[in-house]
Amino acid sequence: MSTGVVTAGRVTHESGGVDDLAAASPESQGAAVRELLTVPDIDEAYVLSTCNRVEAYVVGADHAVGRAALAEFFAAVDDDAVVTTAHDESLRHLLRVAAGLESVILGEDQIIGQVRTAYEDARDAGGIGSMLEAAVTKAIHVGERARTETGINEGVVSLGSAATRRAAEELDLEGATALVVGAGEMGQLAARSLGDAGVDELVVANRTVAHAEHLVDDVEDETDAAAVPLEALETVTSRADIIVAATGSEEPVLETHHLDGDTGTDETDSEQVIVDLGQPRDVEPAADALPAVRVFDLDDLESITAETREQRADAAREVESMIDAEFDLLCDQYKRARADEAIAAMYESAERIKDREVETALSHLEGEVTDDQREVVEAMADALVNQLLAPPTKSLREAAAEDDWSTIHTALQLFNPEFDSDDGPLAPPSVVTASADTGIGATDDD
Length: 446
Fold this sequence. Notes:
Elements (H helix, E strand, L loop, with lengths): L4 E8 L5 H7 L4 H9 L4 E8 L3 E8 L2 H11 L9 E3 L1 H13 L10 H15 L5 H20 L9 H10 L8 E5 L3 H12 L4 E6 L2 H8 L7 E6 L3 H4 L5 E4 L10 H4 L12 E5 L16 E4 L1 H66 L7 H31 L3 H11 L13 H8 L10
Parallel strand pairs: 5-6, 5-8, 6-7, 8-9, 9-10
Antiparallel strand pairs: 1-3, 1-4, 2-3
Keywords: NADP, Oxidoreductase, Porphyrin biosynthesis
EC number: 1.2.1.70
Protein name: Glutamyl-tRNA reductase
C-alpha cells in the first residue's frame, strides 16, 4: 500500500463553462495519465474526461506535490474554473460522481460506465496502484449499489431526456434521424438521450462547430453523428424526423422557412416533431401551424419531469447514507493496509534477527549439525518470534483502527532499530494530512 495521499482537481459543468471544459479536455484519458506520471513524486494517476467534467486524481507524497502536478495539468484553464481537493474530500467526491450525485442529470447511468472505462485506461497506462485501485473500485461498487438498491436512476428528470420521451410518444425513434440545435448543457442532454434511444442518425447544429463536435464525440457509438454550423440549418432540417432546439438565443433560430415545404411531401406522410427547449423560444410560433409539423414547448414537458425529480431527490438521500458507510469502509481498508505495512516491517526485522541468531547458535554446537537438528532449532525460533509478536500485532491493528499512529511508530522504532520515522508518512492519508498539511488536508470533520 502506497504511503502517499490523494489529491484531485476538476473542471465540471458546475465550475466552468463549455470553453473551460474544452480547454481542460485531454487528447485521451490514457495520455493524460501518462502525462501526470511523468511529474516527479507522482506515483499513481487517474483521469475521467466526459463532455461535462474533466477530473484528475493523483497520489503523491503530500498535497503540495499533488497540487503542483494538477496546476500544471490544468494550466490552460482559468483558475476560477478548477476545483482542487485534498484526500478525504477527493475520495468522497469520486464516490458521489460514480453514484450519479454530481451529474447534470441526477442519478444518470452513463457516468458509471465512464468511470469504469477511465479506470481501465488508467490501469493500461500504469497509473493504478494500490491506493487508486482501492478508491476507484470502491467508487464503481458504490455506483452499482446506488442503481440496484435505490431509485436514483428511475424516470426522466432532465429537459433533454424529457424531450426525447415526448418525441417518442409521437414517433418511433429507432432508426429515426434527429437534429439538435445548440450544443450547450440542454443540447448535450438531448443529444445523449436521443443516442441512447436508438436514433439512426444525429446531427448537432451550433454556432461554434468545435463545441458541437465535442458533443458528438460523447454520443453512443452505434449512432451516426455529425456536427454542422448553424448556417447549415436549412439544409439539414429537411431530413430530420425530430428536432430539439436548445440554443438560449434571444431570437428564434428555427423559422418557418427552415421547415415549410420540407415535410408532408409526396415522399413521406410522417409528421416532423419539434421540441423547443429555448427560453425565450427557439422556434418561431408560426411553425406550429405548418401541416406536417408538431411543436412542443417547455410547458408540455413539465408534467414528465416533475414527478421524477421528486422521486430521485428521495433516492439521493438514500445514496448519501450509502456513500457515508462505504467511505468509512474505504478508510478502514486503508487503515488495515497501513497497519499491515507496519506489522510486515516488524516481522521482517524479527526474521532477520532470528536468522542471524539461529546461525550463531548452530555454529556453537559441537560436531556436524544434522538437518533434523537444524529444523528443531529453526522451529523453536519461529515459535518464539510468533508468540512474542502476536500481542503487538493485535495491538498495532487496534491502534490503526483507533487512528493511534504514534503507537505504530513507537513499535517500529522498538522492533526495528533501522526504522526512521522521517522516512515518510505511515498513517492513512486523512491522518497524515490533518497533522502535516493543516488547512488543506484536514479531514471532513475539521
